[in-house]
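Structural prep section.
Before we set up the soaks we want a predicted structure of the protein with magnesium ion in place, mainly to decide which crystallisation condition to try first. Input record follows.
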Amino acid sequence: MISFKNAYDQVLQHILNLGDETVSLLESTGRVLSEDIRADRDFPPFNRSTKDGIAIAFSAIEKGITRFKIEGVLSAGMPQQTLSKDTNCFEIMTGAVLPEQADTIIMYEETETEDGYISISKTPNKGQNIHRQGTDEKEGAILLKKGTEITAAVIGVLASVGKNEVTVKKLPKICVVSTGNELVEVEDKPLPHQIRKSNSLSLFAALERVKITPTLLHLADNQAIIEKELEKALNNFDVLMLSGGVSKGKFDFIPDALDKLGITKVFHRVAQRPGKPFWFGVQNEKQKVIFSFPGNPVSTFANYHVYFLPWLKKSLGVEAEKHTVILDEPVQPHPTLTLFTQVTTACHEGKLTVKTLKGNGSGDLVSLALADGFIRLPQGETEIPAGTAVDFIKAS
Ligand code: AMP
Ligand code: MG
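Run finished without errors. Recording the tokens verbatim:
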């Protein structure tokens, strides 16, 4: 059995590089950029008005002029005009191009209109209310770096530089494999000795949130079937994500089957709770990675978040986020195991605090639905006092 730290480091040493692909702009949400995005023109691309009002030449103010003849009205989307003399003004709307020869904008609130003339009540500052060309970004500047996760705000930037298609990191093809003779389909009515599958569905939902649509496969606890089906799956997928069949039971055939199929075991069993019997292996030449989680729903769910998500981020070239939270109550660590304890979070005076959920062990998936995530408690003898900062793993 190895320590959590060792297991985590080993998982992150076996990332996959899956290459890049080009997708349409709106398909790229939630993906990771694999190209730098540059400004295709200045931002803003012209001197734009930031107010509805009038555009004047400041030279008029210096001459004491406070009443201007209206030369025309400029709306956003009109090409640039020229102010013909400094006794004139243009009415100008937010987003419109500043006319040539004008250099100052006065908002309507500080003006009065009468018979084709506009007078001003307050002396303006030269150059006010203009969002100057190129002051946000210059043409050619890098706006977004490769490795950026594409959020809704990023989509806005991509749209504004004309990226109709975006080059993103490819995602791994994943087969989620559930195992167990006791499991029936969601739509079936289980007999008294059976239960409905839940892990594979929960993993499916979690993977969809990171834009991966996995294929689901279910295997009975039968060594021959397991070997045959896993061999096929290994040919068709980059990652196998199994649940169940990796503990010490008489029907836990997965480690043997993977061994027979030429998968190199990196480790089996981690000093942690839940999720201790986690089996992790690779087939380096063929670029395959196998996460084989113990079947208890809380174990599968915790290990997915603890190991798989950071592995995925690193494979995609994204920095893993590290979050800490403050304990709202004292907690007791385990003397030899790293604990992943389910918690609910609350925000108190600018700090994210957590309370532990009293789940009924790693089979209790109902308590899981109430949890906002897990805190990681390193092994130890002494109680950790309230107010201590601990690592937090957010649930999907
Ligand atoms: P195992 O790791 O195969 O020994 O399974 C441990 C426990 O998790 C057993 O009670 C199983 O019935 C349960 N279990 C295994 N796989 C699933 C699954 N896909 N969905 C729900 N429960 C499961
Ligand atoms: Mg089983």
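Observations: The chain has a mean pLDDT of 96.
Flagged for discussion at group meeting.
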